[in-house]
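ARCHIVE CARD
CATEGORY: sequence design from structure
SOURCE FIELD: tokenized fold
FIELD CONTENT:
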């Protein structure tokens, strides 16, 4: 569609032209990534996900959450879409690797989006499946010049390996370390300071 820009409001200097070129490239990459996907419909953008539960010690009730860039339904499964402009990470199947601080190649973005997928199932009991996809927008290499999608299959309520329950147990353990002062914090070497 045509866009009219008022000359009094904008100065077409080098910085503005560069910014426009970067934005145009990002939008093109975004659309090219979407074209790689099977049919889907978007149910939310910049959606806040929040869930309250008790920690294993039964003395603290906390609310946790996050903001999902996009939520879409595809093949009867909810997908959390998270856009990234940084360096891409490989997907991992081993849930434990997401929580191991010293692990080589620990996928930090993977933990974030799996967290959102877990939240999506936790707050929507009618959902059976939730997965996560990372859309990497940077043209890092010739093989991924149109961006890259990294997929985490996520969780199913009926899975035999109890992936959803195991992830929930690990998340609650991590939150216990953060909230309870007497619990050693294993995710970094910094001294934890609990603020009540």
């Amino acid at each position: 569609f045509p866009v009219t820009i008022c000359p009094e409001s904008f100065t077409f200097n080098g910085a503005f032209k560069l910014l426009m070129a970067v934005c145009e490239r990002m939008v093109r990459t975004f659309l090219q990534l979407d074209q790689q996907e099977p049919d889907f419909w978007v149910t939310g953008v910049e959606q806040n996900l929040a869930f309250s539960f008790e920690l294993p010690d039964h003395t603290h009730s906390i609310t946790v959450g996050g903001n999902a860039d996009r939520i879409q339904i595809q093949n009867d499964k909810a997908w959390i879409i998270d856009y990234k402009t940084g360096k891409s990470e490989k997907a991992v199947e081993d849930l434990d690797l997401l929580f191991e601080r010293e692990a080589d190649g620990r996928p930090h973005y993977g933990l974030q989006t799996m967290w959102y997928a877990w939240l999506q199932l936790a707050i929507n009991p009618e959902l059976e499946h939730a997965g996560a996809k990372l859309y990497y927008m940077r043209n890092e290499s010739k093989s991924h010049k149109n961006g890259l999608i990294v997929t985490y299959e996520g969780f199913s309520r009926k899975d035999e390996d109890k992936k959803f329950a195991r992830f929930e147990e690990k998340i609650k353990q991590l939150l216990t370390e953060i909230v309870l002062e007497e619990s050693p914090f294993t995710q970094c070497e910094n001294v934890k300071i609990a603020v009540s």
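CARD ANNOTATION: The longest helix spans residues 14-35. The chain is about 30% helix and 25% strand.
SHELF: design records, drawer C
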